[in-house]
Amino acid sequence: MNGWILAATVALGAGAAATLWGVATGPLRRRVVAQNLSTALACLVLLLLAQGYDRPSYVDLALVLALLGPVGTLVFARLLADDLAEDPPRGWGPAYAVAGAGAAVVTALCVATGPSRASAKLLVVGALLIGGNVVASRALSGGFGGLRRG
User: Fold this and answer.
1) pTM for this structure?
2) Which of 25, 30, 41, 131 is the most buried (most CB within 10 A)?
3) 68-83 pLDDT, tens per residue?
4) What is the largest CA-CA distance in the chain?
């Protein structure tokens, strides 16, 4: 077991525990934030495992998850808009934590791989992960000010 796999194991354990706690307890707003957190952490774990096992195909899976995870959260935010309007989620803490962890993991992986096409793909995955997580968290917490619902 190398350091990358150990980091992935720790991230998966902590993320799974936080996600299960969020889904199993509390109101709807906590469950939706936990769903957003789980997809972002799974993407980070896939990136770490890709480096640990030297499997570039895991980066492709992380790319797909970085694209579809926030979209799933936005679908939930749209479908549950009436229920979430009464008690909006306040998930900025987990959103910033995952964004920071994503930036740290992508930076470490880019340093480990060196300048190459793989590091460019890692930067794209990191940008999608951080940007998608911030947009999805903003949509969950009440949307963007000044925009009409339609």
Assistant:
1) 0.86
2) 41
3) 998 988 888 888 888 8
4) 51
